[in-house]
Amino acid sequence: MSPSAAASPSSRAGRLGVGIIGAGRVGPVLGAALAGAGHALVGISAVSEASLERADAMLPGVPVLTVPEVVERSELVILAVPAAELPALVSGLAATGAWQPGQLVLHTAAQYGTEVLAPALQRGAIPLAVHPAMTFTGTSLDISRLGEAWFAVTAPAPVLPIGQALVVEMGGEPHIVAEADRPAYAEAVETAVSFSSAIVDQAARLLRGIGIENAGTFIAPLVRSSVEAALARSGASTIDVADLLADTGGGFDNPPASEE
After folding, report:
1. CA 165 to CA 116: how far, in whole Å?
2. What is the mean pLDDT of residues 41-66?
């Protein structure tokens, strides 16, 4: 079923009209996952050519709207924007009176809990901070990978079950992270992603420097075994190494493109 064919919020109990602000790698994937759970996608904001193409590929038939239009039409607003842009976006929409009482507002930034959504909360919105602990490619491959991912969920106690339920609907596993612990959580995520990427890139570059052109293929078995051993020491029982390859753009010779 295409996202645009999802049932309307009024036709199915518990279904929401979902709007997405941000058509980078994360927003369209989460939107597609929620559409697959039966929620209705009412619109997505996209500006750049790349984001417009991604929105069309991942969410065919979903209207591309302005940010205010997305907020106006949505029962659940997903703010999938870079963390640096989030505070100004939330406060700016509050200043224009865009947030609606009872509206769910969910952001995906690792470093923030729900405090950053205070301007929306003050206008009656329900704040949720939900971060999927995985690297996104911005393609349909990510939808199945959500089923193997943990999501950090932060929310006021009365609405915490809503955030957890949305994660389960997207196929993920929710884990509660306290508001005060979000900076440490974000640091852990950034360390894991940036350190592993930097080490692999450096090793591949050194190998290419001595004439090994297929450096990614050459180093892949070593990286697999090393990561599996490290995860085993940390308490993880298994690793899907295909995810590791996907996170480096399909192979260690091709590092992933930067996020919009």
Report:
1. 22
2. 96
pLDDT score of 116 more than 80:
yes
Identity at 52, one-letter amino acid code: L
191 in the same domain as 143 = no
pLDDT at 82 over 80: yes
Q: What is the pLDDT of residue 12?
A: 44
Query: What residue numbers bound the domain in which 229 lies?
Result: 184-247
Cβ–Cβ under 8 Å, residues 182 and 205: no
Residues 6 or more apart whose CB falls under 8 angstroms from that of 11 comprise none
Contacts of 169-174 with CB under 8 Å at 24 or more apart are 169/33, 169/34, 169/37, 169/39, 170/30, 170/33, 170/34, 170/37, 170/132, 170/146, 171/33, 171/143, 171/144, 171/146, 171/147, 172/132, 172/146, 172/147, 173/149, 174/150
Is pLDDT at 11 greater than 50 in this prediction?
Answer: no
228 and 110 fall within a common domain: no
- Examine the pLDDT at 10 and tell me if it is beyond 90: no
Whether 146 maps to a domain, the answer reads yes
Q: Give yes or no: residues 54 and 163 share one domain.
A: yes
Note the pLDDT of residue 3.
40
